[in-house]
Amino acid sequence: MADAYGGEIGHWPQDLRPAAEAFAQTSAGKAVLEEAAQIDSLLDRFTVASPSASLQMQILKSGARRGAWHRALRRVLIGAGLLGVGLAGGLAGAAAVMIAVPAPALIAEDGVTAFGGLSPDVASSEEKPGLMPAGEGRQ
Fold first, then answer.
1. Cα 5 to the chain's mean position, in Å?
2. Residue 13, domain member (yes or no)
3. Domain interval for residue 98
4. Are residues 66 and 105 in the same domain?
5. Does residue 55 belong to any structural domain of this protein?
6. What is the tens place of the pLDDT at every residue in 11-60?
7. Are residues 10 and 27 in the same domain?
8. Whole-prediction pTM value?
């Protein structure tokens, strides 16, 4: 536990302190806590050097370039997203119109279709035996 919490028992969690104080009364406990205190002392004296001015400028410049690139990418992606939403809306509208508006009848009341009139082909029925012209019934 001294490796995790150090040589100062006051820095240990409350529930572990009574056991640590009892262990500190033994010779092995004193040695472990003394070693942890030395490591704590070394860590307390450790300092990190301040970065140089040139390193600070490099960091700031790289951040500015990255920020500009991200802004440009964001604009392109927003435009592409709006285009996609517009196309999806157009397709949904076209589908809604096709469903909501009934299709024109294939055969009008006067017998005319998109392919022409629907009059029986009398000439072809007269030429073939067994076929009767329109309007004649079997007798």
1. 42
2. yes
3. 51-112
4. yes
5. yes
6. 888 888 888 888 888 888 888 888 988 998 888 888 888 889 999 888 88
7. yes
8. 0.35
